[in-house]
Amino acid sequence: MEKIVNLKDETMRKVKELIQGKVAVLFGRPLVGKTVFALKLAREFLNPILLKIDTNYDSSWAKEFVGEKLEIREIRNARQLLKTLDNIPEREDVLVIIDSITSLADEFLLEGETFFSPRRNVELTNFYNIVLRKLAKLKDYRITSLIVAHEKIMDFVTREVGPRMNIVALRHADIVLHLVEEEGKRKVKIWKKREMITYDKAKFYLEI
Hints:
Blueprint: E1 4-6, H1 11-19, E2 23-28, H2 34-42, E3 47-52, H3 59-66, E4 71-74, H4 78-85, E5 94-99, H5 118-138, E6 144-155, E7 160-163, E8 175-182, E9 185-191, E10 198-206
Parallel strand pairs: 1-10, 2-6, 2-8, 3-4, 3-5, 5-6
Antiparallel strand pairs: 6-7, 8-9, 9-10
């Protein structure tokens, strides 16, 4: 029997309990509300840090949405992201949000290229690996990480979707969340680690 929880106001507290001290990946289609989800979650932490890569919204809006406690660092390239992850402060109740890691993918294409060659794909996968390994090390300090990613079709027969990241890189993630919209509600599906199969024993519905 599927467990369905209508969480509303307590949604983010439940999600916080689920991912605290872990590395989580949140993915979904464009405009489904991934950034809003991440910023709502940031309200539940004492020391949220937004590593803002996405240029589709203003930092001032994010600060107003979460409050003055939100620390925002503008990330312009892959090297800057890696350097920033080496200098995350050890504070109480920290949430690090990377929004979104897949926005840096085009950096691994040479000028004039429109698709990833095997070599470029390996370079991108290595980058994702390094990012997730650095975040995994932060767990030693009880730091929580949320990586926002776009989705891609993984199986053209079943039309199953997954994060626009290499499955090998995802082995460093503790939990993967899929944000979807069904019947006017936002639903978070939880994937099993490594197996990357939809985990239906717990489904969270939230309106954002």
